[in-house]
User: Fold these one by one.
Assistant:
Number 1:
Amino acid sequence: MTGRMGQCPSAAQDRLPVPPAAWAYMVRCADGSLYAGWTTDLARRLRAHRTGRGGARYTRAHGAVRLAYAERCADRPAALRREAALKKLDKPAKEALAAAWSAAHTITLREATLDDAPAVNELYSWYVTHSTATFQYGVPTLEEQQQSMAAAIAAAPFLLAEDAAGHLCGYACAHPWHTREAYAWDVELTIYCDPDCIGQGVGGKLYTALLARLREQGYCNAVALVAHPNPESEAFHRALGFRKVGTEPRTGYKFGTWLDLQYWWMALRDGTEPPAPVRLPDER
């Protein structure tokens, strides 16, 4: 059989390596104390502290509330040394570190414009080349990113999260779920966070604000597509009140492996009455 060939599959060697992460951190406990630790997975370790399942004995006894300080280290030995140094600090020194970190990492949300396309494209492209969170193979051009953002901004909020220095820590937006008229009240969500900001509450702030604004516009349903396996994203959506409503098995192939695609659903409005037309951005 002869003829044209379709898409070549993405191979394992196409995935760019992610440097091993190592963090020294402090968490604020319910009694006001600060617990210092180290980890290679900040988001997972913080979740263990908060839930008490797999966390430290100290945080189980005193109740971990939130992240108070995080410092990325060169490797595990460096993180262990930094943890030891943090533990030796007195309370005023720990509080000073936490205050300075909080000021530098205060997150501000704002609406994106097309001028933000270069920063958005840089962040998204990291996931294209390093992660299966997106099924896209090739890095988009700046023009393609601008076109995608323009289409999203025309229908729904496109929110950016920035730190005190103006660094892009993440973004979240919504796209029409399908083009047929009956789907006009449904949106598909997109969220990406800077890998160095994962576990620091950026995603939760973005999604909470995005969902609130979608409700205000009159949207009724939101769906997030999550590549499986991705336990962090699954836990994130579950914690925010999404429920998994279906799975497409073995539906995407990237970096030399087959991936499932999960559907996580949230009803933004209840009831069976006819919906009012959605208020589009240029109509508000």
Number 2:
Amino acid sequence: MSDILFTTFGKIHGDSHKTKLAKRGILTVGYRRSSPSAGCLQATEAYLIALNVNNLERGIYHYRSHQHILTKLKDGIDPDLSQILCHQSFALDASFLIVLSSRFDKLWWKYPHSRAYRSALMDVGHLSQTFSLVATAHKLNTWLTGYFIDDLLNDLIKVDGHKEHSMFVLAGGHGPMDPLSPGVVKLLKATSP
């Protein structure tokens, strides 16, 4: 899990890169990840929902990418994830979910509103692709979705829904690759001629 978080969201190019540029008279705004980010603002946050991860208690965590640490937000997972994710079956089979949120307060500092939203979507897309590649390299199945109940997911990861808002959900694990749950497959077989 640590490798997946770091390779996808971690501070890949940091202090040594910054020092080299400073020697050449170039000051940088922040750090860089493995994926591009609009204005190098790194406005996408990652929240880990650990369901069945070795050596990690079940719960909700915020990944602090510049420090490569997890901060626990909540023990256990009380709400019905299936309801929050509109009963998508992958939520039941995943070992973990990663909620990507966008920090619009960071983006609005540099970009007008419409450009900030476009930048947020591109950042989430880049990070989702990187996650899919990294998790697949770790021999995990992946699922991605933008279909969820916004207010419930924002409450779960403790963001306000305005300055920071949930945008996309990534999931990984060893569950079945079939996008249909076993119950849905059984129902389809029972109702087909």
Number 3:
Amino acid sequence: MRIAITGSSGLIGKALVRSLRADGHDVVRFVRRTAAAPDEATWDPRCGYVGPTGLAGCAAVVHLAGAGVGDHRWTAAYKKEIRDSRVGGTDALARAIAALDEPPAVFVSGSAIGYYGDTGDRAVDEHAPAGRGFLPEVCVEWEAAAAPAQEAGVRTVFARTGLVVAAEGGAWGKLFPIFRAGIGGRLGNGRQYWSFISMHDEIAALRHAIDTPELSGPVNLTAPEPLTNREVTAAMGRVLHRPTLFAVPAPAMRVVLGEFAGDVLGSQRVRPARLLETGFTFRYPGIDEAIRAALGR
């Protein structure tokens, strides 16, 4: 199968490319520069350009590109970058897909559980409405931008990803060195829910979305049972054999992170109903095993 991927240089994108190629699939990587290799195609989401040859003959397109939410302090300029990189890129790709004489069978467009906002102790699945705040607003616009592909009859899946447990990058990549040093601890009161997923299951779920014809619309990519930050902290201590005595007070986080602290301290108790309904099996459903898998244990 020929599959096009944006965001192939990112944490999830790299792992997905490796997984697909290991099984013999032909992967086209969209890059934001002049294509320099046979497996590359050029696109420029800022100006809406998508290289026409990159999508030709593709059975699936997976869109994972977007500015990192936690990479910088949320200034007005960076919030615009977060929104534009997602909404503009998705719109450009969806329009290019819709314009093809033979469009792909499926468009898997990245999204996030930020769609639901702060759910507190309330468990939510794909039927829940959007929350309030910056990230929910971005997610709503992000998903709406895929409309041209949907209207062209392409099965479209919104992969609402949770916190990916990985040592190589992302939020967990920043946590591991802190906990290894013995200075890790809960964030705020620690009662906020974290909806996590192992890297292995994240990639398997994306491939499940590609291969499962009955899947369309929003699909939560999270482990079956979310845990509180306090429980996650305890698991990190158990697996790494380190104390977890330190805690980061909420006011200190707001000073360091600014507006983004509200989302870090917020609670998202998200469950993957659509994955489970379509027969997906998690290899690492528990937090301890997900952490061990990230460490190669």
